[in-house]
Amino acid sequence: MQIPEACGPVSRRVSQVLAGRAVSPEVALADGSLLTDRDSQLGLWMIYELSYRGFDDVDPALEWDPELVGLRVALERRIEHELRAATRGRVADALQDSGQDSDQVGELLLRMVETDRGPQLASYLRRDASLEQMRDYLRERSVQQLKESDPQAFLLPRLQGSAKVALAEIQYDEFGGGRPERLHQQLYAETLAAAGLDPTYGAYVDDVSATSLASGNVMSMFGLNRRLLAAGLGHFAAFEASSSVPSRRVSAGLERLGLAGAAAYFDEHVEADAVHEQVATQDICGAFVADHPEAWADVIFGAACCLHLDHLSAGELLARWQPREDAEVAS
After folding, report:
1. What is d(CA 218, CA 239) in angstroms, rounded to the nearest whole number?
2. pLDDT tens-digit series, residues 71-101
3. C-alpha atoms less than 13 angstroms from C-alpha of 3 in its C-beta half-sphere
4. How far apart are CA 43 and CA 211, in angstroms?
5. Sign of the CA dihedral 159, 303, 79, 143?
6. Cα separations (Å) of 147 from 82, 186, 215?
7. What pLDDT is stored for residue 134 in this prediction?
8. d(CA 312, CA 314)
9. Phi, psi at residue 285, to the nearest 5°?
10. Torsion of Cα atoms, 78 then 80 then 86 then 88, to 10°
């Protein structure tokens, strides 16, 4: 994969370091939200990618370049602070609802997902999306889904006992159950190809939005920082628990648009995630909190982050597709 095209001072500085060129003086981060700042998210995505597949002709040793690590830490601190502020009310309500009974963590996570009332993106894709809108959706999700479960793989060596076994069980399914052609990443690549899109890893990094990059980056942030292990588990549980029903709706939308051949990825998740949600909420998060009661709030924080980012991404796509007058009528 080639180094993406920079879109601002942060991503430009990262690309200069990756290319081995002299860099400009230290850059200041944007004043507003970093979750919706494409320059910041692209720069962070490029830094994280050094811990995954990397870039063509870029020295792998740059994964631990002090300048890039320092920039990564600065970005992560701002993003974590923003996420904690954005989810504070949701986390407080969940903790009050549960009474912080560790035996109830699984039920609480499922209830958070079931009662969530975000933008109805999957319903729109099922009933109303045009072919180009569906392709837009698939393209935006490609940066995340073509490395599906890779961020969560970093959580495994940090677990022990029942939680470790349960996560490994889900990962075995995500990584194809011993069959390379059943890798969920591969299934998504085939979905892209069937929809007339480029299935190459990283093909759309230069095109996707800040919120699409942020959705993937937060998974990497949780996976690559041991202190955020509990948040990573909560995020993963909410992600699995919120996948089955939307996947069924997206599959129906693909069939409506004459793209039934592109639905295998989503059909797989209708069944798999109906099982995975129980394992992730009960056997992973429940077991982890039983062993680490102090981690309860961070597990809930991670789940709240997943739901918050879903809201941002879905809201952005629906606003992009729906004319203003339609949105006003709908409201």
Report:
1. 12
2. 999 999 999 999 999 999 999 998 887 666 6
3. 18
4. 13
5. positive
6. 25, 9, 12
7. 98
8. 6
9. -70, -40
10. -130
Output 1 or 21, whichever has higher pLDDT: 1
Average pLDDT over the chain reads 93
What is the C-alpha R_g of the chain?
A: 19
pTM over 0.90: yes
> Between the CA of residue 19 and those of 14, 111, 130, what are the distances in Å?
9, 47, 40
Residue given tokens 């993406």 in the structure block: 4
The helices-and-strands tally (H runs, E runs) of the chain is 16, 0
* pLDDT tens by residue, 265-295: 999 988 766 778 899 999 999 999 999 999 9
Return the pLDDT at 325.
Answer: 46
* Residue 317 burial class via C-beta count within 10 angstroms: exposed 0-12, middle 13-18, buried 19 and up: buried
The span from the CA of 37 to the CA of 9, in Å, is 11
Q: Which two tokens stand for residue 148?
A: 């599906």
3-state class percentages of the chain: helix first, strand second, coil last, to nearest 5? 75, 0, 25
Burial of residue 284 (number of CB atoms within 10 Å: 0-12, 13-18, 19+): buried
Report whether pLDDT(315) > 60: yes
Q: Domains in the chain, ordered, with CATH?
A: 99-330 (1.20.910.10)
Q: How confident is the model at residue 102 (pLDDT cuts 50, 70, 90)?
A: low
